[in-house]
Amino acid sequence: MSTEHENAIQTEGDLLRDALARSKRKRVRRILRTMHPAKIASLLETLTPLQRVAVWQQIDEPHEAKVLAHLSPTMRDELRREGDQDGLDDQDDQGQTSSTKTLADAAGESKPAVQTQLRLVLEALEAGKLKRIARLFRKLHPARIAGLLESLPAAQRVVAWDMVDHERAGKVLRHLHEEVRRRLAAEMDLDDLVESARGLEPDDLVDLIQDLPAKLGREILLALNRRERERVESMLSYDEESAGGLMNLDQIAVRAEISVGTLLRYLRVLDVLPPNTDKFFIVDRKGRYQGILRADRVLTARPETSIADLMETDFEPVSVDQPGEDLARRFEDQDLISVPVIDAGGHLLGRITIDDIVDLIREQGERSMLGLAGLDEETDMFAPVLSSSRRRAVWLGINLLTAFLAAGVIGLFEGTLEQVVALAVLMPIVASMGGIAGSQTLTLVIRGLATGQLVAGNARILMLKEVGIGVLNGLLWAVVVAALSILWFGQWAIGAVIGVAILLNLLCAALAGVVIPLVMRRLGIDPALAGSVVLTTVTDVVGFFAFLGLATLVLL
Amino acid sequence: MSTEHENAIQTEGDLLRDALARSKRKRVRRILRTMHPAKIASLLETLTPLQRVAVWQQIDEPHEAKVLAHLSPTMRDELRREGDQDGLDDQDDQGQTSSTKTLADAAGESKPAVQTQLRLVLEALEAGKLKRIARLFRKLHPARIAGLLESLPAAQRVVAWDMVDHERAGKVLRHLHEEVRRRLAAEMDLDDLVESARGLEPDDLVDLIQDLPAKLGREILLALNRRERERVESMLSYDEESAGGLMNLDQIAVRAEISVGTLLRYLRVLDVLPPNTDKFFIVDRKGRYQGILRADRVLTARPETSIADLMETDFEPVSVDQPGEDLARRFEDQDLISVPVIDAGGHLLGRITIDDIVDLIREQGERSMLGLAGLDEETDMFAPVLSSSRRRAVWLGINLLTAFLAAGVIGLFEGTLEQVVALAVLMPIVASMGGIAGSQTLTLVIRGLATGQLVAGNARILMLKEVGIGVLNGLLWAVVVAALSILWFGQWAIGAVIGVAILLNLLCAALAGVVIPLVMRRLGIDPALAGSVVLTTVTDVVGFFAFLGLATLVLL
C-alpha cells in the first residue's frame, strides 16, 4: 500500500469514526457508499466490535458480499452471523410467525398491519438491527414511514430517521407534522437536506421551507436553479392555508384553438401526466383562464374535434387569496379532483388538487379536537417534556384563573358553609351538571359556526331550542338531584335549594353555550380554543352563586 | 263547459285544496303541472286570497304568463304585483344591494356567500316568497342546498324542502346528515321519494335506504328494475363504513389482451366516463382482478399498444370487508382517487372513490368532536327539543353518577370541612387543575390510538413523558396555588396541603390519561366517547381525597 492510500483510508476512517461518535448514521452511510469494498473491509478490522457492528448495519445489502470477501475469515464469520440473525431472529422467537410473513403483512395497509410495522420497528431498534428498519422502510410509502417515525419516542426516532434513504427523505418530511418535520430536518446534514428537498414538488417544498428555520430555508432555495427558485419564492408569499399556499404549478394549460389530436400529441411528449390530472385548463394568449377541458372528454372525443367545442366555460376558478376552509367545502360539496387558481387579473397561476385538500380536512379535524384541550400546537406525541410542559402550562394557568374566580364566589359564603357543611359536599354537583350541559350546547354552536350554518337569522331560534332543552333537562335533573340530596341529608330545604340551583344553572348554561361563541366570533377569537374555559367559568360561578346564595336565604 | 269538464276541475281543485291544507307544497306543484293554464286560472278565482297567493308561489315561472292570460283583469293585476314584488323587494330595502347582485354572490362558494344564501332563504321564508327560494335552489349544487336545509329550524326546513324540485331531491338527500335525511324523506309523498331515489348512484341509494324506515326502503327497492335491485340488495349486506358499504359499481373493467385503440373505441361509445375515473381495472376471463391501467397512460400511449404492456400489476386492491378508517388512511397516504374492491376469491366487485372518502374523513372529524360532549348522535342542529333532551339527558345522567361519587368523597371529610371552611373554598381548584391536565393527556392518547401510532411498545415511553410533564407542571402550579392560598387565608399549612394535593393530582391525571383509554380500547369501549367522564371521575376523586385527607392529617 502506498502512503497516499493509507492516508486516504485514515481520512475516511476519521470521518467515519467522527460520524459514528456523533451518531450521524446518514453520514456514515454516505461515506461508506463512496468507499471501495476493500477499504471498508480494512477499516472494519480497525474498529472496536461495537463500532464494527454499527458500521455493518449501515452497509447496503447488495455490497455486503463484496465487503465480506475482503475480510479476514474470523471477522467474516462474525459479521455474517450478524447479518444472518436478521432473518433468523423472528423464527427463533416462539410466539411469532416467520419474518417473511410478518414483513409481507407489514407492507400491507390495514391497521393491524400498521401496528405490526410499528412493533417491528420498535423491536429492531431495541435489538440494534437497523438494517431491518431500512429494509422495511424501502417497502413502505413515504407517508407510512412518516407515520411510523411520528410513533417513535424522540431518541429512537432520530435513529430510525437515519435509516431513511436520503432520496426519499424529502417525501417523508412532506408527510410529517410540522413540529416533527422541523426537528428531523434539523437532524440532517445540510447537503443531505438540500439534496432531499430537491426531489419535492414546488408546493411541498414551500411547505417544508416555511417550517424550517430561515437559515436552512435559504440554503435550500440557493441550491435550486433560478427558474425553480423564482417559482418557489413567489409561492412563499402566500398564506400557508390560502389557495395560493395550497396551489401547485404542475397544471397543463392549453389554448382553445387547438384540436384534440394536437393535445394528444403534446401529452404523448410529456409521457407521464402530473398526478390528479382530471382536467386541463384553457387559457387565452395572455394566459388568462378561459375554462376547463375534462380529461375524459379527451379520451372519448375524435382527434379532429376542436378543444373549443369540448371545453366548459362555466367552471368557476378559485381566487389565489381564497381561504383553504372554503376550498375544502367546495371540493367536498362538488366532488372535485382539481381546480384552477387565478390572480386578480384572471391569469391562471396554478391548480389545487384533492390530495392537499384531504390533508387540510384531516388537519382541521385534528386541530379542532386538540384545540378543545388547549393542545392545538402539540402535534408531536413525543415532543420533549420541557417544551410540552411549557405549552400545556399556559392552558393550566388560564384555567387556574377561572378556578380562583369560582373559589372567590364560594369564599363569599364561608359563613353559610360553616353552618351547613352539607352544602360543601353537594356544591360540585351543581357546577359539574352546568358545565356538562353547557359544553353540549357550546359544541353544537361551534360546529354550526365552523360550517357556516349558524347566522343571525337562525341563532335566536337555536337559542330558544337550547333553552327548551335546558328547561326539560333542568327540571328532570333538579328533581333527581333534589330527591337524592334529601335522602342523603334528610333535609327538605337542601333538596329544594339544590333543585332550583340546578335548574337555574342548566338554563344559564344553555344561554351561555349559544352566546359565548357568537360573541367570541364577533370579537375575532376562535371559540373552539377559548370557548370552553369561558363557559366553565360562567357555569361554575353561576352554579356556586345560585346554590350557596339560595341556601343563605333559605337555610339561615 | 261540459259537466265532465267541471267535475274534473272540481276533483283537481279538491286535491289541491287538500294538499294546501296539509302544507304538501311538493304535491301542490305536481298537481299544478298536470293542469291546463285555463284550469289553473279558473281554480285561482275560486280560492281565498291567502290560498291564491300560496298556490301562485308554486306555479313555475315559465307558466306564469299563460295562467295570467286566463285570469280576470283585477286578479291578474293582483297576482302580477305579487310576482313583481319578488324582484323589487330587495331594491326597496335600503340597506341591501340589488337582488341580482345578491343572487350572483349567493351562487358563489365563499363562506360569506354561504351565509348570504342562508340569510336570503330565511328572509324569503319570513316573507312567504317561496318562489325566490326555488329560484335560488335551482342555481345551487345539491350539497349546498343540503347545507342550507340543515341550517333551518325544523318547521321552516320542511317549507324550504318542498321548494326543491323532486328531480334533484334525491341528490340533496344524499348530502344531508343521517338524522335530517330521515326526517325530510319521511315528509315526501312516497311516489316523489321513489322518483327522487331513482336518480341516485347505487352507493348513494344504499346509504339512503339504510337511513330510512324499513317500509320506505322496501318501496324504493320495489320501484327499481330487477338488475338494479339485485345490485343494491347485494350492497345493502355490507357494513356502512366498510369497503363494501363505500363501494360504487361504476368501474370500467377491461381485459389485458385488448389494445389501447380498442379501449378508446369502447370509451367513445360510453361518451361520458363515470366521475373520478383516474384508472381502469384489468380483469381476467373470470372477472378476477389483475391490475390497473391509469387513464393518463391511455392518453399518452399509441393506439396499437397492448394494455398488458401498460398495466400495473402491483397496485394493491382493497378487500370488501376492510374497515373505512384504514381505507381513509390509505387514500390520504398514497394520494389516491380510486381503488378496486375485490371479494375473498379475488373477483373485482366495484371501486371506492375519493369523494366518499372525503365525506368519511369529515364525518369522523365531526364525530370525534361531538363525541367528546356526548353528542355523537346529534347531527341535526335543529332536532326537536324532546328528542335532543332525551339524548343529552343520558350524558348528564352518567355525569351525575360521577358527580355524586365525588360528593361522596367530600362527604367523608365533613368533620374536617366543618372545622376549616377554607378547604371548601379551595377544593374545586384542586379537582379542576387535575381535570384539565388529565384531559390534555387523554386527548393526545386518543389521537394516538385513532391513528394507530400508539402500541404497547411505545405506550410506556409516552407514559414516562406524560408523568414527566405532570411532575414539572405539578411543581409549578403547586407552588403558585400554595402561594396564592397562603396570601388569601394566611395559613402556611393550607398552602402546603393544597400544593401537595395539586402535585399528586396532576401526576395521577397523567397516569390516568394514558391508562384509561388504553384499558377502554382493550375492553372494546370507544375512549373518545367515554374517556373524559371516567377521567374526570378519577381526577375529582383523587383531588378531593388527597386535599381533604392531607388536610385532616395536617390541620386537625
Automatic annotation (TrEMBL), chains A, B:
Biased composition annotated in UniProt, kind: Basic and acidic residues: 75-84
CDD domains: CBS_pair_Mg_transporter (cd04606)
Localization: Cell membrane; Membrane
GO MF term set: magnesium ion transmembrane transporter activity; metal ion binding
Residue ranges of the region described as Disordered: 71-110
Transmembrane annotation, as ranges: 393-413, 419-446, 467-488, 494-516, 528-555
Domain of life: Bacteria
CBS domain span: 311-369
GO cellular component, one term: plasma membrane
Membrane topology: Multi-pass membrane protein
Main location: membrane
Keywords carried by this UniProt record: CBS domain, Cell membrane, Magnesium, Membrane, Metal-binding, Transmembrane, Transmembrane helix, Transport
Assigned protein family: Belongs to the SLC41A transporter family.
PANTHER family linked to this entry: MAGNESIUM TRANSPORTER MGTE
Quaternary context: Homodimer.
NCBIfam families: mgtE
Purpose: Acts as a magnesium transporter.
Protein name: Magnesium transporter MgtE
Annotated source species: Lamprobacter modestohalophilus
